[in-house]
Specification:
The complex is a heterodimer of chains A (333) and B (274). Chain A has 333 residues and is of the alpha+beta class. Chain A is built from nine helices and 18 strands. Chain A has two domains: 4-231, P-loop containing nucleotide triphosphate hydrolases (Rossmann fold); 239-325, OB fold (Dihydrolipoamide Acetyltransferase, E2P), CATH 2.40.50.140. Helices cover 27% and strands 32% of the residues of chain A. A six-stranded mixed sheet of chain A has the order 6-7-8-3-9-10, with helices on both faces. Chain A has a five-stranded antiparallel sheet with strand order 13-17-14-15-16, with no helix packed on it. Chain A has a four-stranded antiparallel sheet with strand order 2-1-4-5, with helices on one face. In chain A, helix 2 crosses helix 3 and helix 2 (92-102) runs parallel beside helix 4 (136-148). Chain B has 274 residues and is mostly helical. In chain B, helix 5 (103-113) packs across helix 7 and helix 10 packs across helix 14 (261-268). Chain B starts with a helix and ends with a helix. The interface between A and B is medium-sized, with 22 and 17 residues. The complex binds adenosine-5'-triphosphate and magnesium ion.
Chain lengths: 333, 274
């Protein structure tokens, strides 16, 4: 119960079309991630689905029902905001109970559901506190608790973890994924974090300037990006792009090769270059190398690769993992 | 060294503040002092020490009924405040959270109506009141007071509401709250400090309003402002009695203002300091 279909959805603020026209189908139970650069319209698209913004044209359907002109409260969706948007004057218990109170459930049912949600989210000891007395992670969990009590047909998340520190983000990411497996409810998740997109999504929607560049599973997008934009956006560190004679030799205008598909050596290889920066992360080493006749290339070696600024290295691209693009930036088969 | 300078500075600033406060408060203080003088003392000239007689109060009480205008003042100021809130909370909500291109213009227009001298509309308003039978009626005056303070009330609420993150209201909408649910359960509780100071200010403004209350009433709906005015007219000037009447009229609001000053100051500087 949570199939969402967008047909030719357009949103303009004044004369600027933030979303020129999007067609998208989200299946029941799917975990869909919207990614894209800042300002590309991810939040706007989510808010259109939520009903917090009105569409300029086009239709939105939830479970076959046209909800284009339906108020947010009637769409049976739950949303978790980046700022958490908890009610500061209510206790955690009242915050989580709010959607149930609005749905006019009997009090004993409300209590039971709130306590169940609090147990799932480890909030039982904090039920009587105000949001102001909680840590960022706890607030985030309250926001999620408020979303799950009502059993909505889909959850909408707008960069829910971006205010948390790296460690907490990692554990909350797991918690949300786990929650998705438990509840099996459609989730739409906006992020600009690569790792979140790749690890959580069943399906990633890559947006650019309000248009969908590609839709697919994380590995689909990683293995066969449809164009330069997706190729450059998915994967971290970014894919290297090379044009000129090297690309022509592969009968393409641009070729792309990911940092992890470059073989590094101190003795011999296809390309020769000089290390400009070496980032030693322990598990991995990222090298930024000025390659003769090619340009600046980022390469990734797993484990320790002991080189420093100014050292000379050889790089060999893995031929089977090279991506080729035409003059319009579209991938060649 | 720095410390002594800053202490001296604080002392100077404090002294200045006291002087300014005293200057501002002095007319009220002198009114209270005069109210405890006999009429003979009162016309003698400037004198800060009254004999302490309460004869003016006694006379004021016997000459005129204080209780009725007092109740009228209470009813008018509370009534107009409640009415103003009922209108202005939704209005300010719309302007703060769902603004259109014209919102700023409307706000400016509302404020500009306060710049118009009241006399300019005295005749039409008087005629409307006369023809609809609202002259000297509490209902008519309550509505009138509500209307003249409405621009200020809407403006104040608008500035408080602007401080409330819109996402919290959107969260309420997502949680299934209706428009009124959103206003009653989320917006109003969060805006309580702002709403409280707006109410206080409006009560004070309505209590002190003397232009319309004096002109649109005679006896039935006359509040304390009209009560004071009635002592200044017929029998020539009786300073002590007039002062006693004034003191009686301002005492309730002075007491209320004193006890709510923290709230008032906090509310009035809400947006500025934060
Ligand atoms: N109310 C509005 N009025 C006018 N323009 C708006 C409005 N809201 C958003 N925009 C514009 O729409 C575009 C998309 O905004 P949106 O917030 O959807 O981006 P986003 O992808 O969520 O970015 P981020 O990753 O930074 O959150 C931006 O260029 C923004 O300036
Ligand atoms: Mg956004």
């Amino acid at each position: 119960m949570g199939k969402i279909v967008l047909r030719k959805v357009n949103k303009s603020f004044g004369n600027t079309a933030v979303i020129p026209g999007i067609d998208l189908a989200i299946e029941d139970g799917e975990f869909v991630v919207f990614v894209g650069p800042s300002g590309c319209g991810k939040s706007t698209l989510l808010r259109l689905i939520a009903g917090l913004e009105d569409t300029t044209s086009g239709t939105i359907e939830i479970d076959g029902r046209d909800v284009t002109d339906t108020a947010p409260a009637q769409r049976r969706l739950a949303m978790v905001f980046q700022s958490y948007a908890l009610y500061p004057h209510m206790s955690v218990r009242k915050n989580i109970a709010f959607p149930l109170k609005m749905a006019k459930l009997p009090q004993e049912q409300i209590n039971k559901k709130v306590e169940d949600a609090a147990r799932i989210l480890n909030l039982t000891n904090y039920l009587e506190r105000r949001p102001g007395q909680l840590s960022g992670g706890q607030r985030q969990r309250v926001a999620i608790g408020r979303a799950i009590v009502r059993q909505p047909s889909a959850f909408l998340f707008d960069e829910p973890l971006s205010n948390l520190d790296a460690a907490l983000r990692g554990s909350m990411r797991l918690e949300i994924s786990e929650l998705h497996h438990q509840l099996n409810t459609t989730m739409i998740y906006v992020t600009h974090d690569q790792v979140e997109a790749m690890t959580m999504a069943d399906k990633i929607v890559v947006l650019n300037a309000g248009n969908i560049e590609q839709v697919g599973s994380p590995l689909d997008l990683y293995r066969s990006p449809r164009n330069l934009f997706v190729a450059g956006f998915i994967g971290s560190p970014k894919m290297n792009f090379v044009s000129g004679s090297y690309a022509q030799a592969h009968s393409a205008v641009t070729v792309g090769v990911r940092p992890e598909h470059l073989v590094l050596s101190r003795e011999s290889g296809e390309w020769h270059g000089t290390v400009t920066v070496a980032e030693h992360l322990g598990a991995d080493t990222y090298l930024h190398v000025q390659v003769d006749g090619i340009g600046l290339i980022t390469a990734r070696a797993s484990g320790e690769f002991a080189v420093k600024h100014g050292d000379s290295v050889f790089i060999t691209p893995d031929r089977s993992r090279i991506h080729r693009f035409d003059a319009n930036g579209n991938a060649l088969a | 060294m720095a410390r002594t300078i800053s202490t001296r500075r604080t002392a100077v600033v404090t002294l200045c503040a006291w002087i300014v406060a005293l200057v501002i408060f002095f007319p009220i203080l002198y009114t209270i002092i005069t109210s405890f003088k006999s009429e003979a003392e009162a016309i003698q000239g400037f004198n800060l020490i009254p004999s302490g007689t309460v004869e003016s109060y006694v006379e004021v009480q016997t000459q005129k009924d204080y209780f009725k205008p007092f109740m009228n003042s209470v009813i008018l100021s509370l009534g107009s405040t409640v009415l103003a809130l009922l209108v202005s909370v939704p209005a300010a909500w719309a302007m703060a959270f769902s603004p259109t291109k014209r919102t700023k213009d409307i706000l400016m227009w509302m404020l500009s109506t306060k710049m118009m001298p009241a006399v300019a509309v005295l005749v039409p308003i008087y005629l409307i009141f006369r023809d609809t039978g609202l002259l000297d009626s509490r209902i008519g005056l309550t509505v009138m007071l509500m209307l003249i303070n409405l621009p200020i009330v809407v403006w104040m609420l608008y500035t408080y509401f602007r401080e409330i993150p819109g996402e919290i209201l959107e969260a309420a909408r997502m949680d299934g709250a209706s428009l009124w649910g959103e206003i009653i359960y989320v917006l109003t509780p969060m805006a309580v400090p702002g709403i409280a100071s707006t109410m206080l200010l409006n009560i004070i403004l309505a209590w002190n309003e003397a232009f319309w209350t004096i002109r649109l009433t005679t006896t039935n709906a006359a509040p304390l402002t009209a009560f004071i005015a009635s002592f200044s007219s017929p029998q020539g000037l009786f300073w002590a009695k007039l002062s006693a009447a004034s003191t009686l009229a301002i005492a309730p609001i002075l007491v209320m203002g004193w006890f709510s000053q923290k709230q008032l100051v906090r509310g009035l500087t809400f947006g500025a300091v934060k």
